[in-house]
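Shape matters. As here.
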Amino acid sequence: MGRYRGPIVKIARRLGVNVAETEKVQKFLDRRPYAPGQHGQKRSRGRPSDYSVRLREKQKLRFIYDVSETQFRNLFAEASKRKGVTGTVFLQLLESRLDNVVFRLGIASTRRQARQFVRHGHILVNGKRVTIPGYRVRQGDEIKVAEKAKKIEFITQNVERFKNRKTFPWLEWNAGTMTGRFLRLPEREMLSLPVNEQLVIEFYSR
């Protein structure tokens, strides 16, 4: 299964979670807190099966980070082989994707937009152009907007809009130079994700 390219609001309403982590999607959810479709408000369901509960958590996490099923499964397989708590390691691998870091820094307003910026060569890692959205950012890496890209309206608007936003403790950002740094891998308690990753582990371990 490839990456979902349809309306993200539809997925957010279906899962009941702001998977885009944007104010715009949250407004849609506040206005219509039910599943999409003409029967969304009237739909009644019995007790969900254990499988459907685990599948739902997996889908939440996959859509939040906006990765394909194959990428998601491969990252889980890698996390399960590493030392440490599998769920936390899995989240750390997702958080260290370049497109996610670009989004967290406020260079892009969504992860979809971040992925586009990366693919178009607007992002430098340690001074080198990287065009792979899933590139693994390491501790101490510098993430910078390329000089020509600093004049792109979308990027300048995003930086201005988010410059006063509370920064994430595992990231460092200088809006003036449009330069950031990945300080360390985030601990689980630093991530306010509406997902129970243990259920995701159980889904893939079944």
Summary: The chain has two domains: 8-87+194-204, 97-182.
